[in-house]
Predict the 3D structure of the following.
Amino acid sequence: MARAAIETAAPLIPPRPTLALLREIAAGCTACDLYKCGTQTVFGEGRGQARAMLVGEQPGDSEDKAGRPFVGPAGKLLDKALLAAGIDRKLVYVTNVVKHFKWVPRGKRRLHEKPNAREIAACRPWLEAEIAVVKPRVLVLLGATAAQAILGRSFKVTQQRGQILASDLAPRVMATVHPSSLLRAPDEETRRRETQRFVEDLSGIAPLVADEAEEASATH
Ligand code: URA
């Protein structure tokens, strides 16, 4: 018996997308059920012609409320790590593989729940459209969900983090840990050491973004 077609956001992608148009249409996306869970679609944001696009898993509680990616505790840690790596967040584009917050209630709190393969597949056309418009030189995949969504289920962040790889979505791809994993470190020493490794991974792509910083200051 023929299987029902998997629903995705693909029919919503306009023929001549711009970031503003994509953001506007994504606000009403119902390609998977997560729109019932999150407050709003959290679309990517940042420099329209960014050389580096950072891709996380999905918005968290703070992002769901603010409608902006990586503005909560993990985002603050990401900002610090970018700065330590010599990367200005204003020069990159930041987004997620899934654009609604998936959560389960735990008392008064909304606890993050991992998106499943169906939800990731449903949302993927938005990420592909963002990549097609921004045309980054490098995708930075934050954590296993983003890495496996782009590089395949067998990709192991623990073994291949920091390596600059080729992909059909962007000339270069680099996967590293998710900043929220640093927040969950069991002790201060582990957090310090792992944050340093995260900064080292990000430093690997800094030269690509640095060219852009020079260009941006030359045009202003
Ligand atoms: N974690 C993510 O993966 N993305 C965000 O935007 C915030 C937290």
